[in-house]
Design a protein that fits this description.
The complex is a heterodimer of chains A (317) and B (290). By secondary structure, chain A is α/β, with parallel strands linked by helices. Helix content of chain A is 49%, strand content 16%. Chain A has 14 helices and nine strands. In chain A, strands 1, 2, 3, 4, 5, 6, 7 and 8 form an eight-stranded mixed beta sheet that branches. In chain A, helix 1 runs antiparallel to helix 2 and helix 6 runs parallel beside helix 8. Chain A starts with 8 loop residues before the first helix and ends with a strand. By secondary structure, chain B is an alpha/beta fold. Helix content of chain B is 39%, strand content 18%. In chain B, the strands form two sheets. In chain B, strands 3, 5, 6, 7, 8, 9, 10 and 11 form an eight-stranded mixed beta sheet that branches. Chain B has a two-stranded antiparallel ribbon with strand order 1-2. In chain B, helix 6 runs parallel beside helix 7. The radius of gyration of chain B is 22 Å and the shape is globular. The chains are: A alpha/beta (317), B alpha/beta (290). At the A-B interface, helix 7, helix 8, helix 9, helix 10 and helix 14 of A face strand 4, helix 6, helix 7, helix 8 and strand 10 of B.
Chain lengths: 317, 290
């Protein structure tokens, strides 16, 4: 894909070398096939080495990749009959959050997710996936609607955070997020949240009070961006790489802390390399999750959600 | 003015500014307090009698959790809970344990919130009082756990829950664990609400970030102290984002009142009376709406 990330450079260089050699053989009629085969096997090994040993900061880069599949991509791959439903019925329609109804394995579901743009124009329209209060209120409206019609709710988390702006404060950004946390706790239907990109702070959590939380292998979930953490803790945003490590924000970190349920494996090199294949991985996890949750009564679902969050925290007595 | 006079005056002043050891001992440290807003100087003793509110300009000084308990609850009625919980260092942040330890010694609290059960004008309530003198009142695992346990206690006893927020937000040193405390307190508040029980949130200086974006904003009744700083994002962050100067009163209690985010701004000297009336008006039989 178009954008090369710093940690991928050795791979890109090797790939370039191989294609140079291939070009050379076709133009000059020299047989370099053994060299090319050798280099290709070296490339495979290098890819495996690099992609299977990604540092937290590398994952942050992949999670932010401009071509990384977004909520609408996965909706297209995973669901049928999607109808987008707009607006919070109070103020407006926030395009930083997309929501609607669709079917998954012939079953009606409600799907809601943060929505980044893929280019500048779309990013402006979608406010870079950073919602205003009306976005969260739309999400809550659709969740309550799902509850009424007994549909499971699937949330995709992909935001740097709730938008820190004047209008957002005036319209009650805090209350909008807080209301979602409390109301999601009481939903009588299964709720599954999947972090597909960046899970930034309260703005992410507002779609995250779920029965099951899953994370794509290279996604992140944190209380603050690595840049923000670095500037608060060490007064230097350039230390973001160190902060990414120290803050423990990767899927394996959250799995170890018992906050998430499953790590969804990613296509080698990141979800952006094959969105379709990535959707298949997500579909398998979703099926498993829904099967487990369908066995629970409304009351049991609420209790299970309670227990899940009740038990998060590290302290001694 | 002659040169002679100039020297004379200076020597006179020096006499005033260097107190003898005797007078130093006569005036112990902190006997007077100067208002940071209007510079009015008051005997600390009198300030405490006035609930730490400046009688000149009505500036509400920050209160410690213990001072709040003394001011709010009936004398001797408070029984604290979970003072034994201890903060760990889950992300192995350098010097985090030491910082918490130092604040604990300075404040006499185990963490940034004091919780328990007591009475207001004879009526039983559960309270969680955050203290901004402890790590900026930030919320880590212990703060989240203590507040959650208090909410559960209130639900169990069928009594009102009051939370006095004073917090800079999430505790960075505990990473995503601190973020999840927002959800933890929220699920407990939902159970409390389902029993038809009252939750009053009182926002004091400052209530920002993750605390503002969770329990502090979802009281059945949201109150705020005058001029309290309340908001989601920091002022500087917003100014950098929107590239415009924000109004003077932005993110104050009064700003929130005019934007429909709080029910009332309550002067601290009226707080006990207002609480008493609110609790009295909710003293019906509890209902189960789960």
């Amino acid at each position: 894909m178009s954008k090369t990330l710093a940690f991928e450079e050795p791979i890109v260089k090797l790939r370039e070398k191989i294609s140079e050699l291939e070009e050379y053989t076709t133009v000059n009629d020299v047989d370099l096939s053994t060299e090319i085969v050798n280099l290709k096997s070296r490339l495979a090994k290098l890819e495996k080495d690099i992609y299977e040993n990604m540092e937290p900061w590398d994952r942050v880069q992949v999670a932010r990749h401009p071509m990384r599949p977004t909520t609408t991509d996965y909706i297209q791959y995973l669901f049928e009959d999607f109808i987008e439903l707009h607006g919070d019925r109070n103020f407006g329609d926030d395009e930083a959050i997309v929501g609607g109804i669709a079917s998954f394995d012939q079953m009606p579901i409600t799907v809601i997710g943060h929505q980044r743009g893929k280019d500048t124009k779309e990013n402006v329209r979608r406010n870079f996936g950073m919602p205003h209060p009306e976005g969260y209120r739309k999400a809550l409206r659709l969740m309550k609607q799902a509850e009424k019609f007994n549909r499971p709710i699937i949330c995709f988390i992909d935001t740097k955070g709730a938008y820190p702006g004047k209008a957002a404060e005036e319209r009650g950004q805090s209350e909008a997020i807080a209301r979602n946390l409390v109301e999601m706790a009481g939903l009588k239907v299964p709720v599954i949240s999947i972090v597909i990109g960046e899970g930034g702070s309260g703005g992410a959590l507002a779609l995250g009070v779920a029965n099951h939380i899953h994370m794509l292998e290279n996604s992140t979930y944190s209380v603050i961006s690595p840049e923000g953490a670095a500037s608060i803790l060490w007064k230097d945003p350039k230390l973001a790489k160190q902060a990414a490590e120290a803050m423990k924000i990767t899927a394996p970190d959250l799995k170890e802390m018992n906050i998430i349920d499953e790590i969804i494996p990613e296509v080698l090199g990141g979800a952006h390399r094959d969105a379709n294949q990535q959707a298949i991985e997500i579909r398998d996890t979703l099926r498993r999750s829904l099967k487990t949750l369908f066995e629970l009564s409304s009351e049991a679902l609420i209790d299970a959600r309670y227990e899940k969050f009740r038990n998060i925290g590290v302290f001694s007595e | 003015m002659s040169i002679r006079e100039l020297f004379k005056k200076k020597s006179k002043e020096e006499n005033h500014t260097i107190p003898s050891m005797k007078s130093k001992n006569d005036v112990p440290e902190g006997i007077m307090t100067k208002c940071p807003e209007c510079k009015f100087v008051i005997l600390t003793k009198d300030l405490m009698k006035n609930a730490k509110v400046c009688p000149e300009c009505q500036h509400h000084y920050k209160m410690t959790a213990q001072e709040r308990i003394e001011h709010l609850l009936d004398a001797e009625s408070f029984e604290s809970m979970d003072d034994h919980l201890k903060t760990e260092n889950p992300l192995d942040f350098p010097s985090y344990t030491e910082k918490v330890q130092a604040d604990s010694e300075a404040t006499g609290l185990n963490e940034a919130v004091l919780t328990g059960v007591g009475t207001i004008q004879g009526k039983q309530v559960a309270v969680a009082i955050m203290d901004a003198h402890f790590r900026m009142g930030s919320m880590g695992s212990v703060v989240g756990e203590k507040i959650t346990r208090t909410v559960e206690k209130a639900t169990q006893l069928g009594i009102p829950m009051l939370i006095f927020s004073a917090s800079g937000g999430a505790r960075m040193q505990e990473g995503v664990l601190s973020l999840m405390q927002m959800a933890k307190v929220s699920v407990a508040l939902k159970r409390h609400a389902n029993k038809g029980l009252l939750f009053v949130s009182i926002m004091t200086y400052p209530t920002t970030g993750g605390v503002s974006a969770s329990f502090a904003s979802v009281g059945d009744i949201n109150l705020a102290e005058p001029k309290a700083l309340i908001g989601f994002a920091g002022r500087r962050v917003i100014e950098q984002t929107v590239r415009e100067k924000l109004p003077e009163d932005f993110q104050t209690a009064e700003f929130l009142l005019s934007h429909g985010q709080v029910d009332a701004v309550v002067h601290r000297c009226d707080m006990v009376d207002v609480m008493d009336r609110i609790i009295k008006l909710h003293a019906g039989k509890e209902t189960d709406r789960a």
